[in-house]
């Protein structure tokens, strides 16, 4: 059994909000808008293609693609760890249904549908109005080989789909870490893991073990057979959920931030060299070198982002509070807005750079307007976009003044 003082310390630690993780989450989702905009300007296959193929954008995207999803699942794990201290697991499960699964179903039926429509239009799969497409084609549960995804589909909402199921699968772990025995083990783990550079090497070793255990290393986002993706993302959620109970771990990230930065820059340099070098200049197998270097890029960049964020972004202000509110609706909306804008902007005859900037800036603007003018003001939409129902005040009628005397 834990002593009363230790028990109190653990409880207080998990309730302390780590504001730097809020900043990491917000910036990661903001970068996601830029990343998905950039997908139209490279030849990696996207729902809408501009015809451009930017090596510069690829050079940035091969770096961020290694860690941006894992770090979001880590932050989600931290949020889960906080939630399960404030509610029963039964209430938590229902909260996951309302917060994740309901917006997912709404997004599949309504929000994502324009993505499939405009992709089908550009690729010659369909001609006609969106209403015709939505009522006659979208819900046919078919897959045209020219399309990136079937009808209907979840597209970017795969993250929400995965997170919901991880929340259910990991319920036994959540129950365990709330128990006295679980808290005791976490306290011992924290004491060991927070020493030296173990926070750098141990997760990296586990990523390597996952890599060696599973043969197919493609992250497909196809839920039914994305085994490598499930393994690394569940591991990220578990890290976030357990690290939230280990406040000294965040300090360890901060103390090791320059080591992580060194490893991150070296590994990214190697990855970039592999990407840009022709086969005849490589003295090793390209695939093997790429895969192992990618693992080092993944964890070193996650560690350095967390470490530097802990050092410089561990504060709150009105901007953070506002962005925390809008980030989920923005995520649900962003890819649809990108694709709709992109479909029209790429025909304006602008340079690739201007097209990218117009689409990215336009996406932030349209998402903000949709949130401010519609989503936050209509309770049904608030719930469908993952926000809480609230009592929205209505203007009061002026009351007549009764004369005295």
Automatic annotation (TrEMBL):
Membrane spanning stretches: 26-47, 67-85, 97-118, 157-177, 198-215, 227-246, 258-276, 296-313, 325-346, 352-374
Single Gene Ontology MF annotation: acyltransferase activity, transferring groups other than amino-acyl groups
InterPro entries: Acyl_transf_3_dom, Glucan_succinyl_AcylTrfase
Protein name (database record): Acyltransferase 3
Keywords: Acyltransferase, Membrane, Transferase, Transmembrane, Transmembrane helix
Keyword Lipid metabolism tagged: no
All residue ranges annotated as the Acyltransferase domain in the record: 19-371
Source domain of life: Bacteria
Organism: Colwellia psychrerythraea (Vibrio psychroerythus)
Pfam families in UniProt: Acyl_transf_3
């Amino acid at each position: 059994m834990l002593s009363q003082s230790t028990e109190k310390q653990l409880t207080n630690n998990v309730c302390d909000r780590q504001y730097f993780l809020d900043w990491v989450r917000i910036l990661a989702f903001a970068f996601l808008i830029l990343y998905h905009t950039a997908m139209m300007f490279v030849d990696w296959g996207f729902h809408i293609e501009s015809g451009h193929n930017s090596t510069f954008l690829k050079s940035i995207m091969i770096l961020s693609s290694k860690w941006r999803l894992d770090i979001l699942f880590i932050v989600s794990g931290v949020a889960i760890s906080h939630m399960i201290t404030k509610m029963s697991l039964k209430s938590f499960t229902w909260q996951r249904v309302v917060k994740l699964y309901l917006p997912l179903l709404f997004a599949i039926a309504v929000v994502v549908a324009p993505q499939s429509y405009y992709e089908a239009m550009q690729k010659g799969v369909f001609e006609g109005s969106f209403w015709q497409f939505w009522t006659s084609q979208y819900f046919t549960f078919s897959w045209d080989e020219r399309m990136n995804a079937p009808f209907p589909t979840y597209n970017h909402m795969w993250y929400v789909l995965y997170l919901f199921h991880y929340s259910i699968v990991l319920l036994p772990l959540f129950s365990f870490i709330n128990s006295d025995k679980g808290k005791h083990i976490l306290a011992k783990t924290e004491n060991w893991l927070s020493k030296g550079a173990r926070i750098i090497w141990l997760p990296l070793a586990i990523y390597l073990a996952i890599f060696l255990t599973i043969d197919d290393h493609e992250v497909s986002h196809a839920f039914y057979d994305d085994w490598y993706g499930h393994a690394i993302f569940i591991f990220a959620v578990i890290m976030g959920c357990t690290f939230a109970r280990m406040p000294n771990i965040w300090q360890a990230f901060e103390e090791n931030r320059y080591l992580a930065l060194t490893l991150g820059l070296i590994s990214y340099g190697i990855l970039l060299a592999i990407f840009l070098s022709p086969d005849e200049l490589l003295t090793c197998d390209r695939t093997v070198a790429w895969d192992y270097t990618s693992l080092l890029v993944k964890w070193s960049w996650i560690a350095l982002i967390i470490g530097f964020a802990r050092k410089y972004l561990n504060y709150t202000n009105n901007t953070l509070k506002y962005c925390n509110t809008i980030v989920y609706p923005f995520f649900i909306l962003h890819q649809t807005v990108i694709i709709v804008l992109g479909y029209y902007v790429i025909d304006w005859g602008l340079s690739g750079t201007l097209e990218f900037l117009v689409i990215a800036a336009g996406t932030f603007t349209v998402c903000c307007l949709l949130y401010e003018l519609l989503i936050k003001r209509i309770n049904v939409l608030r719930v469908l976009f993952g926000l809480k129902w609230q009592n929205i005040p209505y203007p009061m009628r002026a009351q007549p003044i009764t004369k005295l005397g």
